[in-house]
Amino acid sequence: MNLPYFLRLVCLCLASFFLLHTALGLATWQVAPAAIRLAEKMRARAAARFVFFLRLLPVMLATILVLGLGVPSYVWLEPPGMHERMGFACGAAALLGAALWSISIGRVMHAALRSGRYARECKRIGREISTESSLVPANLLDVETPLIALAGIFRARVLISRKVMDELTRGELEAALRHENAHRVARDNLKRFVFLLAPGIFPVMRGFGGLERAWARFSEWAADDQATGGDSRLSLLLAAALVRVARMGAAPQPSMAVTPLIAGDLGLPARVDRLLRGETAPPAPLWSRTALVGTLAVLASALIVGAMHWATVLRAAHEALERLLS
């Protein structure tokens, strides 16, 4: 199939993205269990950041390589105005790359529409209330569903159902609000949408569920640690709030822009145990921090060498694109 200049560039970008992302995604999938075990030795907030970065690494690297090498090499070295034949393999890879992004964008749009409907419904049935600490805006919902959750992305607020407000003591409620405020400060709802936008390994297989569940677990631990700040009294109050809300029956998560106090099966016993023991994970071992610094140094060195031999790198990238096209 002969394609014009610009359409050929689009197809090459999609095809090369799919191939690079698949290779990087499979490598990430292989190292994910070991990476999660390593993260468990870090403090919760550092572990959440580490797992979040690892989950996005395939899409970030693939995008950087396509836009930073593939597109410049094509524009610089490919003669404009000429038609060139595209092979079947390249066309198939381009279609798969387009499918990856179409599914991801569709997921985000569906989640955004669902979140918008939920926000409008909460605004209709709720009213703003003041809390003792005033850490984060809160709305009281006149519903019987046991709900306390952070809703929204850029102007987040806590939603509290009448049932939870009546059942929790003042101290337990304030501890729960501190937990939700920690999620707000960390922009965890936005990160959930970023996960939705990041493509899976294949169109019908995400492949990163383990990393996403680990991030959710570590982000809950981090919010617990931030809310209590090492204060044993606050730890006991938050643990009591978790148990009390769990006994009411945790409500289902209505949208990706909502982070409930108890999110499904994210290890409630482990969270309560951490709070009662007052334990947090120790800092990462020295060898792991050294490995991280070494990895960053290698990447920086690669960037410097690439910049010094930019023309050679672009020619090599263009040659790879020509092979892919045929």
Care to describe what's here?
The chain is α+β, with helices and mostly antiparallel strands and 326 residues long. It has one domain (2-325). Helices cover 69% and strands 7% of the residues. It has 11 helices and 7 strands. It has helices at 5-39, 44-77, 88-125, 162-167, 170-186, 188-197, 209-228, 232-248, 268-277, 286-308, 310-325; strands at residues 2-3, 84-85, 126-129, 138-141, 148-151, 157-161, 258-260. The strands form 2 sheets. A 5-stranded mixed sheet has the order 3-4-6-5-7. The protein has a two-stranded antiparallel sheet with strand order 1-2. Strand 5 and strand 6 (157-161) form a beta hairpin. Helix 2 (44-77) crosses helix 11, helix 5 crosses helix 7 and helix 8 runs antiparallel to helix 9. The longest helix has 38 residues, at 88-125. The radius of gyration is 24 Å and the shape is elongated. 35% of the residues are buried. The mean pLDDT is 82.
Sequence-ordered SSE layout with sheet pairings:
Blueprint: E1 2-3, H1 5-39, H2 44-77, E2 84-85, H3 88-125, E3 126-129, E4 138-141, E5 148-151, E6 157-161, H4 162-167, H5 170-186, H6 188-197, H7 209-228, H8 232-248, E7 258-260, H9 268-277, H10 286-308, H11 310-325
Helix pairs in contact: 1-2, 1-3, 2-7, 2-11, 5-7, 5-8, 7-8, 8-9
How many structural domains can be distinguished in the coordinates? 1
Share in β-strands? 5-15%
Shape: elongated
User: Quick one: how many beta strands?
Assistant: 7
| N→C terminal distance | 11 Å
Instruction: State the order of secondary-structure elements, H for helix, E for strand.
Output: EHHEHEEEEHHHHHEHHH
Q: What proportion of the residues is helical, as a percent range?
A: 55-70%
